Amino acid sequence: xxxxPAVKAALKSQAVETPSWxxxxxxxxxxxxxxxxxxxxPQEKLDDAAQVHAVTGVAPTVxxxxxxxxxxxxxxxxxxxxxxxxxxxxxxxxxxxxxxxxLGSVTHPDPAVRxxxxxHLLECVDIMDxxxxxxxxxxxxxxxxxxGQDDIAARQDRLAEALSAVYExxxxxxxxxxxxxxxxxxxxxxxxxxxxxxxxxxxxxxPRAQVCVDTGHHAPGTNIEFIVALLLREKKLGAFDFNxxxxxxxxxxxxAADPFQLFRIMYEVVRGGGLTSGxxxxxxxxxxxxxxxxxxxxxxxxxxxxxxxxxxxDRDALAVAQREGDVLGANAVLMDAYNTDVRPLLAEVRxxxxxxxxxxxAYRASGWADRIAAERVGGExxxxxx
Length: 386
Ligand code: AOS
Ligand code: ZN
Ligand code: ZN
What we know:
This protein is α/β, with parallel strands linked by helices.
C-alpha cells in the first residue's frame, strides 16, 4: 500500500510552471475575445501568476516568451518576480512571427535569415543569464508545404548547425529543451516533427540538450506515455508543455480532454523517477473563452490530481501481477489508483502547506478578478493562438 506521507511530500515538492502567455488574451485565427483585467505588461502577468501560486502553493515559476515579454532590464524583472515569491522559468524563443521566417528560421535556405534566427536564440541565452533561468525552450515552426520545396536533409544540417551554436553558448547550469510538433504551420514537412528527431539532435548535442514533450503535438492515437517512458529511460526528458486536445494543437486546459491519458503519462513519470530528475512541468495553454486565472488554477490542480493518482499506484502489487502474467490484475491495480478520489488528499496537502484547501474558492474569495478588471484597461493579446 502506498506510503501517504511520502505521497504528500512528493506532491508538495512538485512545481508546475505557468506560461506568461496564458495570462494574456488569445484566440483562434477567427477571433480573439478580449477579457476584462488581462495583464498589459510582463509585470502584470507576474502579478497574476503570483495569485495562482498563492492559492495552489505549487506554481512558483513563470515561463517567459521573447519578444512578447520584452523588457529593458531582465534582472529587474527577475527581482520583481522574487518580490512576489516567484522565479522566472523557461525562456521561450520566437523565430516564427517575422516576415523573414516565411520559409523557415534556422533551416531557411538563405544564410542571412539563418543568422538572424540564431542571433535571436543567442540573445535568449543572454536573457537567461540575466533572469537566472535554467531552460531555453526551442520550438521551430520551420518546415515546408510542398514536396520539392526545399531539401529535407539539408534543412536538418542547417538545424544541427544552429542548435550546436546555441548549445555551445549555454552555461554549465543551463539546458536546451527541444520541442517537437508534427505539423502546423508547415503542412508537408516539419523540421522537428517528432520525438525521434528531437532526440537524435539532443543526443548529438550532449547532456544539456533534452526533449520537451508538448502533449498536444502528436498525431491522434499516439501513445504519449510510451514516449515519456522511453525518453526518461534515456535521460532525455527535459520538460512537458502540458495542455489537452480533442483534435490537433488545441491548447485546452491540461486534463480537460483526457484525464486518463494525463494519469498514464504521470504514472510513467513517477515510475521513471521524473518527479525528482529535473523534468520541468510546464503548462502551454491558451485560454480563449474561459477566464484566464481560474483556468490556470484548474490546470495546475489537474496536474496535481493526475500526479497524486500516479503516486498512489500500488507498485508492489503491480509488479507481482506483471511478473505472474496477471493481465487483468495488473490493469486493475492501475485502474484502482486512477479511480481514487484524490481531492481530499490534496486538500490535506494544501492545509499542510498553510493554504486554503480549495484553490478555486480561495481565488474567488480573494477579490483579485474584480480588482484587475477595475484597474487594468486595454490588456494585450498574448501574441498568437499557439
Ligand atoms: C507551438 O505550437 C508550441 O506549443 C510552442 O511551445 C510555442 O513556443 C509556445 O506556444 C509559445 O510560443
Ligand atoms: Zn508547446
Ligand atoms: Zn503547441
